[in-house]
Specification:
- By secondary structure, the chain is of the alpha/beta class.
- It is built from 7 helices and 11 strands.
- α5 crosses α6.
Length: 275
């Protein structure tokens, strides 16, 4: 069996941290199952605040977004997460050895994700490394970028139904997902990209004999639509069902395990959300 724990740690509606513990999935190789992958969504950016569909637009975090990222990172720090410097492969042996030491943070190249990752890195490395924060291990990965929204890029969120038509939108109680507007990546496209990302993660984290180190952890900082599709791709889940069942909420804790089916995943729920 496997256990996936989603920790939605924010106190507001934009920045969300998800922990995905990848264990014993038959779709994955023996190497990648030794990697714990934590997936975080960026904090609020300018487009989020203005109700604009961002996609590949490269807006910075708002003051609230930076606050959200700091609060999530501090919560992670309290829960025992630490980021190792590039020169270390293990935490220092001491009575305060962290519960979870992240070997690497991978980030989408878009500014809202990169700024979030840098905030995480600076806070999570502050009690783990002797080096300055300039040496923290954040790697930009193009395949973590948000979905290309095509002609919907830069449009108001409120225009989705009008521009795309109800027959080309998957609507949940909280969000309208446009499916195939001109120039946009489709969700099946995102599934394929997510599979390639998982292959990249395996290659990067098992090369040079690293698999001998045993189980270790990394953090991905990405975006809403693509974060959901990473989850769907790894567990070979239907993307439409994932969109209907799974949201990046605030102040939520989800537990997905053999004894906890998806429909009972929410431990804590909130009515707020990040469109």
């Amino acid at each position: 069996g496997f256990c996936i724990i989603y920790l939605h740690c924010t106190l507001d509606q934009h920045s969300t941290i998800i922990a995905v513990n990848l264990l014993s999935n038959p779709l994955c190789s023996l190497k990648i199952i030794m990697i714990n992958i934590y997936v975080a969504r960026h904090g609020q950016d300018v487009d989020n605040a203005n109700g604009i569909l961002n996609g590949h637009r490269n807006q910075p975090l708002t003051d609230l977004g930076r606050h959200q990222a700091r609060e999530v990172a501090k919560r992670m720090l309290q829960e025992g997460f630490r980021l190792l410097s590039p020169s270390r492969t293990h935490p220092s042996a001491s009575s305060t050895t962290p519960i979870t030491c992240l070997r690497t943070i991978y980030s989408s190249p878009l500014r809202r994700a990169r700024e979030t990752a840098e905030i995480f890195a600076n806070i999570l490395s502050s009690e783990c490394n002797d080096e300055s924060s300039d040496s923290v291990n954040v790697q930009l990965v193009d395949s973590l970028i948000e979905r290309n929204f095509g002609i919907m890029t830069g449009m108001p969120i409120s225009s989705i139904i009008e521009m795309c038509g109800k027959e080309h939108v998957l609507s949940t109680e909280k969000i309208h997902y446009f499916l195939n507007p001109e120039g946009a990546e489709t969700f099946p496209d995102l599934i394929e990209r997510a599979k390639s990302l998982l292959t990249f993660i395996e290659t990067e984290n098992t090369k040079n004999g690293d698999e001998a180190l045993g189980q270790h952890s990394i953090l991905l900082v990405t975006h809403g639509d693509f974060g959901k599709m990473i989850y769907a791709a790894y567990y070979d889940l239907d993307w439409e069902e994932v969109l209907r069942q799974f949201h990046f909420g605030n102040s939520e804790v989800l537990l997905l395990a053999k004894h906890s089916p998806p429909e009972k995943a929410h431990v804590f729920e909130t009515s707020q959300f990040n469109p």
